[in-house]
Amino acid sequence: MLSVVLLTREQPSATYLINRLQDVLPLQKVIYESWDGPPAPNVAQSKLADLRDRAAMLKKHYRERIYEEVSGSKELELSARDTVFGHRWRNIEKPTKTVEIFDRDWKAAQKELEKDPPDLILVFGTGLIPSYVTEVAKLECINIHTGLSPHYRGQNCTHFPILNEDFENIGVTVHLVRKAIDGGEILVQERPNISPGDNEFTLIKKNERVGAELYAKIVAGMAAGKVFVPQDQPKDVGLLLMNRALTQGHKSLVRSLIRDGAVDRYLLRASKGKIRPKPIADKLVSQVSAKSPLN
Predict the structure, then answer these.
(1) Contact assessment for residue 130 and residue 106, using Cβ atoms and an 8 Å cutoff
(2) 295 within a domain of the structure (yes/no)
């Protein structure tokens, strides 16, 4: 049987993903990257780091609280989870072994993986993973990127297409994990179905659901002996977006665009054939025989 480990963070979309993967086969384990970092090496550093962390947390919490109260974003996000994921984001339905590591404590992840190296490591929503972790996999390490690489790489790759009124280039990329951020060879890409009434939260969740479905399809195919052939990404094109690029001001502008009918404007353009979707690798390419399920 194909052995699979999921490396992720504890979040509602990860719970949905775990349930969807375990529809296909039991996971060997789930390794959660914590949102918290490791303790500082001595008491003085620990106290200073704690004060800095608390200050940063309070500042972030204050800004986010104001944004939530003004925009109603918290209620919209909760509604989007139920609308897109149904009940499957709430609880892990089939028990599986879970292990927690500190934020970016990749040596601990490596140690845990090396206890029983899996055939496949699946990644979703973690920090950048070093090669000494990905190389533990007997076959390959694969990532869900909720953006269309190479056009939108990095983070918040649903928000920025909305800001650009570029809805036709919202989508998901499943790719091999390499040193370049979201720059590994592509297995498959897909766009979500955009409907009247969608907002930034439903589009993010739709992307995550598309990614879960693609993972399930790939795992099922590999378990059945299919061989998938990755495709190289075009070089020197597109945007690389880091988390700090998205400010509260950007989020407020996204909210305003959605309220002012950006989704309906896109759907109208699409109905008239006036959209410009970027070319994507929208087909899983497979072959009959090889030594490994991934070339």
Answers:
(1) yes
(2) no
Q: What is the DSSP string of 1-53?
A: ---EEEEE-SSHHHHHHHHHHTTTS--SEEEEEPSSPPPPSSHHHHHHHHHHH
- What's the pTM? 0.88
Residue pLDDT, tens place only, 62-96: 455 544 544 578 899 999 999 999 999 999 999 99
Residue 293: inside a domain, yes or no? no
Closest by CA position to 169, among listed 185, 153, 180 = 153
- Asked, for residue 294, whether it belongs to a domain, the answer is no
**Which CATH number does the domain housing residue 164 bear?**
3.40.50.12230
Range of the domain at 244: 4-287
Beta strand ranges found along 57-118 (DSSP E): 98-101
Residues 20, 12: contact at Cβ < 8 Å?
no
Q: How far is CA 102 from the centre of its chain?
A: 19
* DSSP 3-state of 251: helix
Q: At 4, which amino acid appears?
A: V
Question: Cis link prior to 150 (omega < 30° from 0)?
Answer: yes
Residue type, 3: S
Termini Cα distance of the chain: 19
**Looking at the 3D structure of the chain, how many domains does it have?**
1
Q: Do 13 and 205 contact (CB within 8 A), yes or no?
A: yes
